[in-house]
Amino acid sequence: MSAEIKAGPTEASDPGGVPQKRKAALRRFFDAATISVMPIYAFTLLFVVGPLVYMFILSFLKRAETWGVLREFTWSNYTNILKPVYLKTFYESLKLAFFTTFFVALVGYPFGYFMARLSATWKRRMMLLLMIPFWTSSLIRLYGWIIIFRANGTLDKILMGLGITQAPLKLLYTYSAVVVGMIYALVPFMIFAVYSSAEKLDWQLVEAARDLGATPWQAFITVSFRLTLPGLLSGVVLTFIPSMGLFFIADILGGNKVILVGNLIQEQLMKARNWPFAAALSVVLMILTSIMIALYRKVSGVKDLEGLV
Amino acid sequence: MSDIILELSQIEKSFGDVRVLNGIDLSVRKGEFITLLGPSGCGKTTTLRIIAGLETPDSGRVFLAGKDVTDLEPNKRNVNTVFQNYALFPHMNVESNIAYSLKLKKVDKQTIAKTVKEALELVQLSGYEKRMPDELSGGQRQRVAIARAIVNQPAVLLLDEPLGALDLQLRHQMQIELKRLQKRLGVTFIYITHDQEEALNMSDRIAVMRDGKFEQIGTPAQVYDNPRTSYVARFVGSANLISGTAYNMGDGLIRLETDYGLGVARTRGAQISDGQAITVAVRRESVNLVTQETPDNLGLRAVVKEKHYAGGVLQIIVSLSDGRELVCSRQGIDSPLKPGDHVLVTWLPDQGVIVDLEAAG
Amino acid sequence: MKKSKIPSLYLGLMLALMYVPILLVIIYSFNESRISSVWGGWSLRWYRDLFRDRDIMDAMTNSLILATVSSLSAAVIGTLAAVGMPRANLKGKGIIEYLSTLPIMIPEIILGMVFLVYFALIRLPFGMVTLAVAHTSFCIPYVYMLVKARLVGIDKSYAEAAKDLGATEWNVFWDITLPLILPAITSGVLLAFAMSLDDVVISVFVTGVNTNTLPLKIYTQLKTGVTPKINALCTLMFAATMLIVLMSAWFAKKSVRKTERRISSEEASGIRNSVGLAR
Description:
B: Rossmann fold; 2 domains; elongated; C: MetI-like fold; disordered C terminus
């Protein structure tokens, strides 16, 4: 402390300098703005950074024989993931995520794009109409699909009533049911992302392309699609990431037939009680997620995801 | 007639309840520079969009080089547009923007490169091939938009207020360049503006539009010197309008009797009956202000209200007894007249143009 | 160019598809029959049963307490942070800001998992406390982002004018800033409330043995087998969420109007009307 004071000749010559400097520092520390951000600093450090750091550490610890963890370093949790049975889960998870994202884009892109071309009044109405299913609890929406898919459910009744099928289809607890449930849960993200990008599109550019000899389709590909691509990519990220973790959709509509990374993590945590392994799985999932976001930023050159809040 | 490149016949168009075009007829000759002049909302942009194929008229036909193109998609018409805000594709560089239509036509690469180079030379932007639109100034974007529209060699080039976004000096320069370019290419230009000076400077013919109709179509000289209606007189020549009763004086002259005094005008072949109510348009620079009584008692009694100097001309505003104002413009910086002076407003018979004859008859 | 009908048809069809599952749940909640695939006529029977079910009523109380506590804590933490961040003299502001939004960026399952192991580590008793902390973590970003966006739109000169007129920092916050950002806070709190009321994934991990929330109750039933009561419960939850979201949208709109002063023709006529009324 004293060495510091001597280092500053002007302060040494001014007897009131030390307490004043300390006071200034104190005042700076206790000024209104600084105090007002204290809660978020504390909360974030304690309940966001803390848990994430602990998860990372945990993923390198050994599992105790019966309960809890040992304070011993090991790579085994990560090497464990490389076992065929777990690799297969990752593969299945990624496959389902790709499937889901593909169909979500196929369904959601035209929706967001068409929506952006509506009149201002209809845009507002459409937004409100979209808000309702978007904010409805995913459980309620899933339950709706159970009613539709189950044996002798709505779909069976319609199909059999029309004479298209003769017997119940038994669609519930199948892979297709899971895919439909996933698409249904995630398509609003795609719609909002594409919409916010297409809304900014200057439609005069499309007219210019048509004027210069482009057919409607050529004008769409060379101008509209190209310029709404950031929205589409953003939608892809926003659907791909959650689709790896939505274990309860696979649980409810797939009836334990479809096991995803999400299900695996849950199982390891709650049933197998192998927390270090669950942590390692989460770390890998988080790295995959970060790579997706980084790739998106690189490709689109945009910092924030479009359509997010 | 074979030299008519574009013909509009009885075009009508409404958006919802709003009638935008009210039966438009127009014939444009090959190589002509024709300007649609009118205030915003008069339907000039809609007319242009109908020619381009971006809108379909409710009724009426569009003929391009003798062929009915009314229901043809924009990409099937040999017409190109320079859009108001240029509409350059932001994700393509200058070269790709200009080459866009050629690529769609699957023109071979060497021809494309050659055409793009020539087009850029024509608009004096050689060397800018790799620039992106957001790296260009307003004037440069303008040139790229023109280059992009002409590489297709359109039969008609449509320009929607292309100079509207530029500053005054650049606008004058571009006016000259555009006119030169049009002469050189021999392409028919249909040009939209609300700026009468621009229209007078550049056009072979001007079509003055009002409320979805053409008020008068003619050469700049015809429209300026012989406005048919008070609207044209005011919009194109900023003329003073004086209403009164007409009495024939022989030799094609009429006397205009008003509440403030006497004026004159030439009939120019029109049949005017004694006692007919008419309006006479007198341009600002044709107005004389005199302080002494005139020999034949001509002149409107007025009081000088204010004078101000702007853009190289002095404007003197006088007010008539009922408060209506007339404007007189003079070369020079000042005049001996002061506010409050009593003056007589006179003009030569040739400078008084009788307007709104059809409307009145 | 002719306008195609395909877009409107597509939009209509997709919207219908989005609503069908929800409508089915609502319709079946009024089904008299015990076997849910058979229609037995309209009835309010399951709603009566629902309110007599102690377990479900407890879960509902828990859910409401939880949503209130976490959205209000988020309101305080998020608002203070959004207001203070731009002026605070602290290092690592950007990093903290980024980290604080992580709970809505990373997959929910990871958030649930890290909370489970971490709460076990720091010996927080599993139950309402852990649920409240976890829910608060994903509620903060909603409030923070909405308030921050609103603050960007506020003209700095208001605060400067107030200070010029002798206001202290505290006066400025209380008299100028807070009233202006109140709609944004309300909108954020309502969204956070709705998110908390709906959360399953994170709650599954951090709940205690004897603590149930409504979504957890529904989740268990969907996995094991549904009783018709669940239809009625889902319908009520749907109605509650709708009410909250519509309110939030209304407040958000109010916030935007104040910010941007974009006068659309509708608003202009609204202003004219009110002027007319005043006369």
